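hi! just following up on the protien thing from before. the input was this:
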Amino acid sequence: MIRVMSRESKTTFIAKDGSEIRELFKSERMSLAEAVVYNETKLHFHTTSEEIYYILEGEGVMELEGEEKEVSEGDLVVILPEEKHKISTTKKVRFLCFCSPSYSDEDTVLG
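and the predicted 3d structure came back as:
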């Protein structure tokens, strides 16, 4: 069976970290979402999920475990479980977020 999904068929929600999320695909083992940040996310970490951010549009500053690095279109960021992180921007940054296991607010710890 071929699984094809339309981006437009997916609704957005605000995640626990404050980002606008459009979950494109979710299974028990992984998820893929489009995220948009207009200012910054809250500093947070995930207890079990590993994340990959792939920047599609815009630019910002990625903070990971207290270290900051500018990111922009085409950059990829790998975030391991329990690594505190946030992303901030002066305009808007849009990126794909791959999580394994799947993203959940329950796995997200603020602070």
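The chain has a mean pLDDT of 96.
The domain at 30-102 is CATH 2.60.120.10 (Jelly Rolls).
cheers
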